[in-house]
Every structure is written in structure tokens, then in C-alpha cells.
Prior knowledge:
By secondary structure, the protein is an alpha/beta fold. The chain has a single domain (2-139), classed as Rossmann fold. The protein is 24% helix and 25% strand. The protein contains four helices and seven strands; from the N terminus they run βαβαββααβββ. A seven-stranded mixed beta sheet has the order 1-7-6-2-5-4-3. Strand 3 and strand 4 form a beta hairpin. The longest helix has 14 residues, at 8-21. The radius of gyration is 14 Å and the shape is globular. The relative contact order is 0.26. The mean pLDDT is 91.
Amino acid sequence: MILETYxxxxxFELGMKLGTEAxxxxxxxxxxxxxxxxxxxxxxxxxxxxxxxxxxxxxxxIVQQYEEGRLPLYHFDVYxxxxxxxxxxxxxxxxxxxxxxxxxxxxxxxxxxxxxxxIKVKIExxxxxxxxYRRITVTGKA
Length: 142
């Protein structure tokens, strides 16, 4: 599925739609350059899970857990990870194979430990189509 958004609110709404449809045990791999809208997408995704508390990128903590929604959300940002073994220290398997939903920013950095089936979300800019234009490609979702 390829979608185009022209303002941050539309990227938020797409995230919210996917969050509403999310099921326990799913792992969403969210990739795109810095400043492309991964956090906006994630905030919408969390709202789709009925998570009401503020959602920010867990850049310095690697994972942020939100338990009060329809399903628990485990939001990873692995941009600053030095080695994939650091994921063992935070107990990633409990999140990846638990009862919640995982959303992993920069997942290509830890590809070797990802489950066999993931849902990939790639967000890309195209400044020729406008500053807020985003092309969002979702693969692996039935």
C-alpha cells in the first residue's frame, strides 16, 4: 500500500488508522530520514490504540512503554544503538513476542533480530511535491 500525505495531520491520521487496526503481537518497522514525520506517525498510531498520554520519540531511552491503551505499545527508537546486543539488555524479546504492539524507528539497524513477519512503514519526502509531502509505503499488512 502506498499513500501520499500533504500535511502532518494526514500523516497522523494514517498512523491512527493503522493503530486502530493493530493486533497484539504485531511489529511495525518505521523507517525514514530524520525529520520525515516518524514521531507524528507514531503519535497517531498511539491515538489509534486509545493511548491518551503524550508520545515522544524515546531517543535517549531506546524504548518507551505505554500500557493504558487498547493494547500495550512498545515504542523503540534504535537510532543511537551502538550494537544489536544492547537490545538484549532492555529485554526486547518480551516486547517483540508479548501481548502488545511494537513500533520500531530505525529498525533497519537491528534487522537481524526482528521477527520473521513484520509490517514495514517507510516514510519519504519529495520536496518537489511540497515541504510537507510524504510518500508512505506500508508492506506486510494484510
